[in-house]
Amino acid sequence: MTGYARSGTSAVCGALHKMGVYMTPHVERTRHDPAGLYEDPELRKLLLRHQSHGFPPEGAAEFQRYIDRRAAEGRPLWGFKTVRGLWYIEDVTFPCPVRAVAVLRDLEAVRRSYAATPALGMPPLEEVTVQVRGFLRRWREPLCVIHFEDLLADPEATVRLLADFVTGGSGSRLDVEKGIQHIDPRLRRF
User: Fold this and answer.
1) CA distance 102 to 83
2) 181: Cβ–Cβ under 8 A, 6 or more apart, which residues?
C-alpha cells in the first residue's frame, strides 16, 4: 500500500484491516488520523531512520528482514503501508505473491488537507509525486490504483473492487461490509 501522505492511505489500509487483511499489530490513532494510521510502527521507525540518512543501501537489507519476518508469520493475507519504503521496494524479494495498492488524490486537495493540519508539516509534494509515479510505471506485479475521490463518492464499489483485487478475484474471504463501514464520509472535509 502506498500513496501520497494525506491521500487516503490510512482509510484504505483501515478498510483492508477491517475486512481481514493483517496490516499492523498495533493501530496507532492520532489527532490527525483518529480512525488510525494502520501503519506498522516497526516499519515506520525503520524507514524514518534510513530516510534521515538518505536511504542508504543497508536499509534495503533491513527492509528485507522485515518482509521475511512478516511472511514467516504465516498469515494468508497481510500487507503494509509505506510511502518511504518506495526507495527500497524494488530492492527486496517478496517470498509470496505480491499485489500493490496505490492511493492517489488530487494534489490541491492534499495541499488543503495539510493547510488544515499545519502541525503535520507538508512534505515536498512534487518530489513525492515523482517517486510515486515512478513506482507506478516500474511496478510489474498486479497493481490497483484507488482514487480517494472515488472512495468517497462510492465507498461500496471501491471497497468491493479492492477486496476482489487483493484476493485475486474471489473477495469471499474478506468481510467486505466491515471495510465499507470503515470509510467515513467526513473524510471529505478538506
Assistant:
1) 10
2) 18
Q: Measured between alpha carbons, how far is residue 54 from residues 8, 57, 58, 178 in Å? A: 26, 9, 11, 39
Give residue-wise pLDDT tens across range 128-185.
Answer: 777 788 888 888 889 999 999 999 999 999 999 999 999 988 666 899 999 999 998 7
DSSP symbols for 37-75: ----HHHHHHHHHHHTTT--HHHHHHHHHHHHHHHHT--
Compute and round to an integer the Cα radius of gyration of the chain.
16
pLDDT digits (tens, 9 = 90+) for 1-30: 788 778 888 899 999 999 999 888 778 887
Burial class (CB in 10 A: 0-12, 13-18, 19+), 28: middle
Cell of 165: 483485487
Q: How far apart are CA 146 and CA 87, in angstroms?
A: 21
d(CA 14, CA 152): 14
The mean pLDDT value for 23-40 works out to 80
Residue type, 107: L
Average pLDDT, the chain: 84
Say which residues have a Cβ less than 8 Å from residue 125's Cβ, sequence separation at least 6.
Answer: 4, 107, 110, 111
Residue 74 CB coordination number (10 Å): 7
